[in-house]
Write a sequence for this structure.
């Protein structure tokens, strides 16, 4: 093994999701009984796993112990092909030194392609069949590669991440085939140059093995964590099969299929792009080992059709998931818009109700205000009416007094008596006590004219003093005689005049 510290690829290449992380976390509902370690090379020409088991057997056993602890499995079985005796011996020695012989064992299996497949190795070592579209954990088994086991030990015990791996560079078109420990990301051309470059005519360059590898157009490709081999084949190793011929339905492909599928039916449906029907024949159980294409007399590239059908199925499944997601988002959006519309209408309805309630309250308040205003107006009208009545009554009294004063003067003149005020003044002048009483009661009253004139006898009792005519005179002039009325029914002027006459008499 040669270590190469060549320049890394200047580009970042995305790595596949970690399958080991998924396998080592089966879940509590799936107890694991057996840990299977794949020490069988998956294809011819590849020897990197063989070299790893011979040089790092102790690291592999340490990784096995760590995995047993993680998944709580009872035992571990390491499968090694019978054409790798040195690797099997190194592993047994490491098991003895670690004193884990009661839990870890090495099982030698026949060298038969593709015994390195996961499901095929599990069936060989345990006799259990992994169900279609299932995983080994469903039968209580976890399967890992020896390279993964060594990487687990490096990470847990030594703190080294997976930054390098073993790669086989081989083929008759390579001058010196070798195994290299290279950093992930190194260019393939660096490995080819370290192996002496190409020799002879190269037919094709393959990343991987001759059965399951991918053809490369150039060696300027990076090494990834899944790259285990660079295979440079000559024309003799990989002759051109020529154009594909029609299928003759010989059935050889079905005979050699390790997954017990019907490659012929898969081919027909994949060619017709009938993806639903091709999945009915368990397309995804195909491990793409290439046995069917290798034995086909018509040289039909069957594996290429299967890969195409898988890729299209995955793409359609992704489109379906995207469409379902978009449909769910659209439904959620429609529901959200409907909810917002309902909320908006509810708010608008509440606002209208509030406005209507406010209008009703305003109308009620206005009605109450108008009622109060009406009551105030009625009160004011009543007050105004009372004032008018009082004013009319006052005016009537004034008119009556004005009408009574001339009548009284004329009567006094006709009877030869002085006016009431004059007679009152005369009486007060004759009676000093009355004068003093009168002057004490009302000094501000004006002194009547002729206060010193004597008053005729009997004049105070005569009706003429009150401005009334005798009955004979009233009859002579055609007037009706005056009727004596109660004091309550007499006009205010008459009552006032009567009081004055009484005061004068006193």
């Amino acid at each position: 093994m040669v270590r190469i510290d060549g320049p890394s690829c200047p580009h970042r290449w995305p790595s596949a999701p970690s399958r080991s992380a998924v396998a080592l976390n089966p879940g509590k509902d799936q107890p694991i009984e057996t840990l299977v370690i794949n020490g069988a090379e998956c294809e011819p020409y590849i020897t990197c796993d063989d070299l790893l088991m011979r040089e790092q057997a102790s690291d592999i056993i340490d990784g096995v112990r760590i995995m047993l602890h993680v998944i709580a499995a009872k035992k571990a079985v390491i499968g090694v092909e019978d054409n790798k005796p040195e690797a099997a011996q190194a592993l047994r020695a490491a098991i003895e030194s670690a004193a884990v012989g009661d839990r870890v064992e090495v099982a030698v299996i026949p060298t038969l392609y593709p015994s390195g497949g996961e499901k095929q190795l599990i069936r060989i070592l345990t006799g259990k069949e992994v169900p279609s579209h299932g995983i080994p954990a469903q039968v209580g088994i976890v399967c890992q590669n020896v390279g993964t086991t060594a990487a687990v030990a490096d990470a847990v015990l030594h703190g080294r991440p997976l930054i390098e791996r073993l790669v086989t560079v081989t083929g008759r078109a390579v001058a010196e085939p070798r195994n290299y420990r290279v950093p992930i990301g190194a260019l393939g051309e660096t490995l080819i140059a370290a192996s002496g470059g190409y020799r002879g005519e190269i037919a094709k360059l393959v990343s991987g093995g001759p059965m399951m590898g991918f053809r490369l157009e150039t060696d300027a490709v990076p090494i990834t964590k899944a790259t285990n081999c660079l295979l440079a084949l000559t024309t003799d190793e990989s002759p051109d099969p020529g154009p594909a011929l029609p299928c003759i339905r010989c059935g050889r492909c079905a005979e050699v299929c390790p997954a017990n599928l019907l490659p012929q039916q898969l081919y027909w449906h994949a060619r017709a792009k009938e993806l639903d029907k091709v999945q009915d024949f368990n397309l995804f159980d195909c491990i793409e080992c290439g046995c069917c294409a290798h034995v086909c007399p018509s040289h039909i590239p069957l594996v290429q059709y299967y890969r195409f059908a898988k890729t299209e199925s995955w793409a359609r499944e992704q489109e379906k998931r995207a469409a379902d997601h978009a449909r769910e988002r659209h439904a959620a959006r429609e529901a959200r818009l409907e909810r917002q519309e309902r909320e908006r209408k509810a708010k608008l309805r509440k606002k209208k109700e509030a406005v209507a309630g406010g209008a009703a309250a305003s109308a009620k308040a206005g009605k109450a205000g108008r009622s109060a205003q009406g009551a105030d107006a009625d009160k004011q009208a009543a007050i105004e009416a009372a004032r008018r009545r009082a004013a009319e009554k006052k005016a009537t009294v004034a008119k009556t007094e004005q009408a009574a004063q001339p009548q009284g003067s004329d009567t006094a003149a006709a009877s030869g008596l002085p006016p009431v005020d004059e007679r009152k003044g005369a009486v007060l002048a004759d009676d000093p006590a009355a004068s003093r009483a009168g002057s004490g009661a009302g000094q501000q009253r004006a002194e009547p004219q002729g206060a010193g004139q004597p008053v005729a006898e009997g004049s105070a009792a005569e009706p003429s003093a009150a401005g009334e005519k005798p009955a004979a005179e009233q009859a002579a002039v055609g007037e009706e005689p005056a009727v004596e009325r109660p004091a309550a029914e007499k006009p205010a002027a008459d009552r006032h005049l009567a009081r004055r006459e009484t005061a004068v008499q006193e």
About this structure: Residues 252-320 form one domain. The CA atoms of residues 79 and 107 lie 5 Å apart.
